[in-house]
Design brief:
By secondary structure, this protein is of the alpha/beta class. The protein has a single domain, classed as 3-Layer(aba) Sandwich (Rossmann fold). The chain is built from 11 helices and 5 strands, in the order H-H-H-E-H-H-E-H-E-H-H-E-H-E-H-H. It has helices at residues 8-28, 34-38, 41-49, 79-86, 125-138, 157-168, 189-192, 198-204, 217-229, 249-252, 264-271; strands spanning 67-70, 145-150, 174-180, 208-213, 236-241. The chain has a 5-stranded parallel sheet, sandwiched between helices.
Length: 275
């Protein structure tokens, strides 16, 4: 069961590599949602290399694992190179994303080692994660459930039902990380359905809530780790403030970056063309 903890410098180097890998995957499979995936790179890097998430690549369904629910499935292509690097599946598979016969699609599902749930329709991860957390508590397990959502996903009504449920059952083994990149599919979230003040909303629903710079790996590890270890008798939220399309300037400033596709030439310029 791995809980390897890298230093902040090592985490930054890993995140840079995984961001470049994500861009290369997108160049080969342009149907992938690259902007949403780039904003969460540091979050996933910290979970798997920051000593936060207990996982077992040799046995992805190990009962002793923590559960990671990737609710924003379309925005988790950046998790593919991390899972490959950890040994969940061969790295050669990264060259076959979205190709016939590959289990790595534009929208991930549980056939991929390391994924727990179907991740197509948004808004279900918090509910599924709450159910898992409740079951683990009733079994007397000390395993934790971590759910990663996007901020645009919080426009779904089902997530707020799940938040009420989690607080009602005092699910202190549940941590929700919001990839708060301030953009949904068609515009900035504030111009579609505003979420501010988001931390206060969680607290009003009976959760603890912390905020963090989602691209500062040291801070992400510290704040998520503190939420996991907290004595708060209820579910915990970490709002990670991120930039959609992080690392690709043409995406970072575009309110429609969610549906933008980068050309292979743009990706080569961003990555230096190195494999």
């Amino acid at each position: 069961m791995s809980e390897e903890k890298k230093s902040p410098d090592e985490l930054r180097a890993l995140a840079a590599r995984f961001r470049a890998d994500t861009l290369r995957i997108h160049a080969a499979a342009p149907e992938t949602r690259v902007a949403s995936s780039l904003s969460a790179v540091e979050i996933y890097t910290c979970l798997f290399y920051g000593g936060l998430l207990r996982h077992n690549p040799a046995n992805p369904r190990d009962p002793a694992r923590d559960r990671l629910i990737v609710s924003k499935g379309h925005g988790s292509i950046s998790l593919y190179p991390i899972l490959a690097d950890r040994g969940f599946f061969p790295k050669e598979e990264l060259k076959r994303v979205c190709r016939p016969g590959s289990f790595l699609g534009g929208i991930p599902d549980p056939v991929i080692p390391g994924y727990e749930t179907v991740n197509g329709s948004l808004g279900h991860g918090p509910g599924v994660g709450s159910g898992m957390a409740l079951a683990l508590k009733r079994q007397g397990s000390d395993r934790r459930v971590v759910v990663v959502t996007g901020d645009g996903e919080l426009h779904e009504g089902a997530v707020w039902e799940a938040f009420l449920f989690a607080a009602q059952h005092k699910l202190d083994n549940l941590v929700l990380i919001v990839d708060d990149n301030v953009r949904c599919m068609m515009d900035n979230t504030a111009r579609v359905v505003g979420l501010a003040p988001l931390a206060d909303k969680f607290r009003a629903f009976g959760w603890s809530a912390d905020e963090v710079d989602g691209h500062d790996v040291g801070a992400v590890c510290e704040v998520v780790g503190r939420a996991m270890a907290s004595k708060f008798e209820g579910p915990r939220a970490v709002i990670a403030h991120t930039i959609k399309g992080k690392g690709a300037p043409s995406l970072e400033g575009d309110p429609l970056c969610h549906i933008r596709t980068l050309t292979p030439q743009e990706v080569e310029e961003l990555t230096g063309g190195a494999p």
